[in-house]
Design a protein that fits this description.
- The protein is about 50% helix and about 20% strand.
- The chain is an alpha/beta fold.
- It has a single domain (about 1-270), classed as Glycerol-3-phosphate (1)-acyltransferase (3-Layer(aba) Sandwich).
- The strands form 2 sheets. It has a 7-stranded mixed beta sheet, sandwiched between helices.
Length: about 290
Amino acid sequence: MLLFFCKAIACLPLPWVHRLGIFFGYLSYCFDPKSNRIALANIQQSGLAADDIEARRLVKTSRLEAGKAVLETLFIWGKPSSKLLPLIQQVHGWHHIVEAQVQGKGLIFLTPHLGCFEITSVYYGARAPITVLYRPPKLQWLSELVVEGRQKGQVEMAPANASGVKKLLHALKAGQAIGILPDQIPRQGEGEWADFFGKPAYTMGLASKLASKADAVIIMAFGERLSAGKGFDIHLTRVDDISTPALLNQAIERQVAQCPEQYLWQYNRFKQRRYALHKLEKAQPGQAEP
């Protein structure tokens, strides 16, 4: 069913996909108050809204943008890269890529849940090899759909496990590029607590470790979704240091501030129960998490 829907969405022009996405996002906004509360708390925590009225406006706008993101993901998965590349209007910061390639260094693309995070790998994969980390869904057929939808051009997928990490490191040492979602909550034991917009968030350590081991160039990347379905602008920003989770979160914060209405604010990075358990474990060493 989802495969059929994916193919049907891919047949539509992007402006229609985004119009349907707005409708889908509005329904989610109206009937999913829990996500609205999470988004509002996260926006207020970020300090990117001037007041409560602005924060609530940003909640609604971001939910509509999230609706676009869901349908445009299926749209991208269902189309070949040759049909997607013309949708990219501008690329800002490509000189960072050229400099890294001249130096023979690998590239780590960090793509947060901001804008269209599917289009950046499509663009790069049409020009050079890139290996993208993903967390396989539990359903086998859905995992196959994700891999098939994302493996376009020279894009390869690496599962979020030990073999996948080895694949990423091998690509970096070969001077190639890898892609990681840096604001995805890692599994227990695979991250550290660090402030994100001034509040503790369980943050991945993988990107920092890979950058250190491979002496790679780090690039924050996001695809800005243009209005009226006009396509996307890709923004590439070099980051000098992500040696700690705190520095990684600071880099993500700067990226989000560029386009806060397109960030996935309802994604709950602040797992307070997990943080409370973390504090309890530090106070009482050796006590296992229930």
